[in-house]
Amino acid sequence: MLPFRLYLILLLTSGYLAAQPNTRKLPMDTMIVTQGQVTIGGAAVPYEVTTGVQPVYNDSGKVTAGLHYTYYRRTDREDPNRPLLISFNGGPGSASVWMHLAYTGPKVLTIDDEGYPVQPYGISDNPYSVLDLTDIVYVNPVNTGFSRMAEGADREQFFGVNQDIQYLSDWLSNWVSRHDRWRSPKFLIGESYGTTRVSGLALELQEEAWMYLNGVILVSPTEIGIERAGIVEAANQLPYFAAAAWYHEQLPADLQTMDLEPLLAEVEAYTRDAFLPALASGMDLSEEKRRAVAETAARYSGLDAQEWLDNNLMPTTAYFWKNLLRGEEAGNYTVGRLDSRYKGIDARAGGDRPDYNSELTSWLHSFTPAINYYLREELGFRTDLQYNMFGSVYPWDRSGDQTGENLRQAMAQNPYLNVLIQSGYFDGATNYYDAKYSLWHIDPSGRMRDRLSFKGYESGHMMYLRRPDLETANEDLRAFIRNALPGENPARY
């Protein structure tokens, strides 16, 4: 027999799902509650799952959208001070599925140990989930997952850097009130564009909702409004080139036999001390020095010196993905953008860029059936709506992106607020050295350096897809959350 609370919630909220199974109209305020249990670190962790929709309101109180979310609450711990982790993915326009079913949640999709899809599709328990330490809510912004605008709503109020932050701040404040989580230490985690989102939310929540956070986790971060265009962006690619070339065994023997992190430390030092100044010299760089730079860059990248010279010492990432494995000996494969461990096959070996992103097709192969099965069949959220892995959110207003500065200001105002960056070394879209650069420039003064940290992994954009990194990244996240809980220490300088 169902517990009374669960029966009552199902009775009150499942009318839409039971009575209107064939509709594609989203209920703007509903939820379904189920129970589960997972073993983490050898101990059983029972939990309650709430998956539902909560409305977005405009300034006049009118419902303008409904956001779908999934909330995991550990049920054998009635601690009002238990942490809460609020999770967003990126895009913009990407659903919360990625970290939900592959990183922090109690379920992980069926893939092999390196992250490649296998059949039959499905999910299993995640023995590394952080649910033992913190409750978790996964949020889908408008037009992602099952989240949708209300009929007649204005698109422009949702789809932009600052618009996104503003409506999500109000929605989160309401969500925390509904679920009685105001006393909980709160952490935001965002992946890719989600890092722009959570960086901006850190300050918006403080200033508009008076909600102060303990931590922000940036997974494979974007530039978060920190300027690094031109030669800085070009120079910062070299350490990533070295990582990908090392993985595919395209480096000289003496470098190929090195462990990855010591190799990258060497390339980073060269990038900062020699490569960036050389690019800054432009046409004033002598031919002798230009040739020397090309030779060193070739040694670290798997491309040859002439390719560096032909591209004015600044080959694009698209060129790299297309050309790293060009040639019969290398198989004439392309390498992936978001994770360069993945290989693809183009219609022709020549050209400037790959025909498709080999890693993304692989991920969609496994994530799409898993999330649809899990939400509909296991959690009971029955609807004819399509689950948008990537939704229509364009044009996206990118003006006024000050999210990195917003994060710095939030940290300055809140001595409890800590920041962790997690990056995969083989990510060619938001590369790990760019992430380090952003870390250095969030607080150029260095006065808050003890609250800023970086962790790198031998995988790509979604570093948790590789099984050893799933374990390590969750342990790093668990340690970060524990260290950001101040106990009875006052928030003061």
From TrEMBL:
This is Carboxypeptidase C (Cathepsin A). It holds the Pfam family Peptidase_S10. Residues 1-19 form the signal peptide. The keyword Protease applies. The keyword Glycoprotein applies. Keywords: Carboxypeptidase, Glycoprotein, Hydrolase, Protease, Signal. One of its GO terms (molecular function) is serine-type carboxypeptidase activity. InterPro entries: AB_hydrolase_fold (IPR029058), Peptidase_S10 (IPR001563). GO terms for biological process: proteolysis.
